[in-house]
Amino acid sequence: MSSYNPAVEQDGRTRLLSPYRNRLVLALCALAAGVLIAGFWNFHWADGFGREIVAGQTIGDTEHLSGSYSERGAGFGFVFAIIAGLAATFTACNCVVFAMLPGLACATEKAGSPRRLAIKAIGIFSLFVLLVCFVYGMYVGSLGPERVDAFNARGNRLLQAQVTFTLLGVVLLLWGVISFGFLDGMLRRLPPKVLRFAASPLAKACFMGILVGLFAIGRPFPVFRDFLAYAAASESPLYGGAVMALQGIGQILVMVLLFLVLIVPFSNRLTNWSARHPGRLEQFSSATLLAGGSYFVFYWGIAFAYDVGRWGFKLDWYS
User: Fold this and answer.
1) Whole-angstrom distance, CA of residue 145 vs CA of residue 147
2) pTM of this prediction?
3) Of 37, 78, 114, 132, which alpha carbon lies 20 to 30 A from 11's?
4) Which is it for strands 5-10 and 13-17: parallel, antiparallel or unpaired?
């Protein structure tokens, strides 16, 4: 096995791959890390923090608020939306959003104006999160108060979460495998224009935004479901779309701020570092995609189906 393997040209550059064995070991470690995090995830702490601290200390009991649209009106829905998004930040249905950070950071590798490109990438990412959330919110707004109760039933929302996040996990796994270069032989059969488009930082930012926007569709988090009931009570698809889009902002706000604070000010240094260590940042991005994908597939798919997760609870590590 050669120690150096040039892959397809991406965005005007030749992507350099490290030895196959090194990439395979890193990929397996990322998969294992995702499974371990999912297996020991303390959802009581994560959900409780969002429900009792983020929501409880700002707007109060969201279960009570969910049925107060006629009393509080449309304006309060926008406050409810941003709090519901923030409350979901560290839940099992949203924490994988942070796996997108390294991928967006790859946008700063391009020569020229890395800081400008990084800001553009985070802007495109955020835009597509909002677009997906807006479309989903229009559907929620059309349900009305009666139909949303059936939509929010525990059995329905858990099944919705299992299907949605397992499929998203498979997509992340496939993306990680492709990004690691394991499928380059198959990809070379695609038209060069398609490969260049898919490899461009802004196309990746767009796809990441779509994936993160879809998180809202599967989210079973009680605070979020209470927010859905409030939005549906308006019986207005436009209103539902607007508040759901604002929820999308809350959902990614911490991640976007981290990106702006950690990446944008140091984009030139990151570009220089990447030039000295070609392919390192992309490999780290690939690893986080695999870790996020394995987390979703294990937590929402395998563990739910076969009761093989929740190790911390089974070992009595969590109260």
Assistant:
1) 6
2) 0.88
3) 132
4) antiparallel
